Amino acid sequence: MASERLVRLLGLLAGGEGPNAVRLCVVAAEVTRTTGAGVMLLADGRPQASVCTTDEVSSLIEEAQYTLGEGPGVDAHRLGMVVSEPDLAAAGGSRWAAFSGRAFGGGARAVFGYPVRLGVVRLGALNLYRDEPGPLQGEEHVNALVMADIAARAVLAAQAGATLRAFHIDIDEDLYLWGAVHQAAGMVSVQLGIPVAEALVRLRARAFLTDRLVSDVARDVVERRLRFDSEE
Amino acid sequence: MADQSLLLRSLVELADNLVDDFDVVDVLSLLSHRCVEALGVSAAGVMLAGPSGALQVIASSSDAMRTLELFQLQSDEGPCLEAYRTGEQVVNLDLAAEGSRWPRFAPRAAAEGFRSAHSFPMRLHRRSLGALNLLRAEPGALSEADIVAGQALADIATIAIIQHQVIIDAQTLNTQLSAALNSRIVIEQAKGKVSQATGTDMDQAFRRLREHARNHNLRLAELASKVAEGTVSPGSLDQLRSEK
Prior knowledge:
The complex is a heterodimer of chains A (232) and B (244).
Chain A: H1 4-14, H2 20-32, E1 36-43, E2 46-53, H3 56-68, H4 72-79, E3 83-85, H5 88-91, H6 97-106, E4 110-118, E5 121-130, H7 138-159, H8 164-192, H9 196-209, H10 214-222
Antiparallel strand pairs in A: 1-2, 1-5, 3-4, 4-5
Chain B: H1 4-18, H2 24-39, E1 43-49, E2 55-60, H3 65-72, H4 79-86, E3 90-94, H5 105-111, E4 116-124, E5 127-136, H6 144-162, H7 170-198, H8 202-215, H9 220-229
Antiparallel strand pairs in B: 1-2, 1-5, 3-4, 4-5
């Protein structure tokens, strides 16, 4: 059973008309009370693609980071830390000289980057912006942390070919036996000689294909009833 | 019944750790192990509430899956959840008698051979961060002295979490909790690799990581990261002293 906050956020994600990915960003902006949001994928420290953006400015913010290789999302991903610039004007470009200029020019006055990751599996960042200066406070910050968490699972689920229903179950189950899921990923990583990120996707893919819970597949792996290298 | 001299030594050891540069998961694992020895219980686990509010195991005296699951179940019902929500100790509960109170947790724990469960809230400025949880197979209650010691250990766990912050605002705390839990995920990923590469169980895999880190003056988090990322081979860790 998930916490109230998580239930509420998942409920918001399930609602609405648009495709899944867009909803992720829309909800992220809503629950953090920011003007716009984007989820950026990075690999080897470099921006690769956008999962979603809510408006032109958040698209600009992602685009600028791809082009310039600097910004809150890039830093958050690289450092594995929350990065916050609550007043772009005051910072005067001392932080990200080129990026700040573009973001400010586009109308952003505050930008924030939250790492999207699960352990060493660093997928990218959640970019948030506001058209007024000011930090993310209390609940907004907590919701940002949770949305970044959800985004990480959403990305992995999408890579594994999940349906929306399967994704919701995945989030729920993960709370119980997340230890086992990550241990299993470590084991599969060694069995197949692949990175842990890919192992996490493979576990999910196997679960979705066989209509089982990811945690059940994980348990089978950890208790050595299931090996991924036996069929290769 | 608490082993007083062992308890004293444990408190000294933990205090020593806390005044130094320390790794949160490492210290909480140590704390969990010392709980078991000093309080005469079968298993101890520290659970922390992440930003979502859900309780998750951050450290445990045993990495056996069944034990971890018993702690993790308590994110849903059990003494841990109650202690976390109410900020009150939940002690000396006889699992055989609490089937209606905890319809899933109590029978599961009893089936694993435990007789009683106890939880001590980890509180900071009127906020609950999580709880220190004990499981006991032996019959009998925790004494008054045990209960006092248990709460002291829970308080030490809280101190470990806030990591030297003198004034801690909710913002920083939330960020820190999130980081601590992510750090645990890295460790789980590393454990899996070590377990597979060396053919050992998760308990031994974790002990290898901790010992190797200590032997080479590395932070547990740092070593776990390198193993999980692949820059340190999981099969290259030092053998446990007990294996030699």
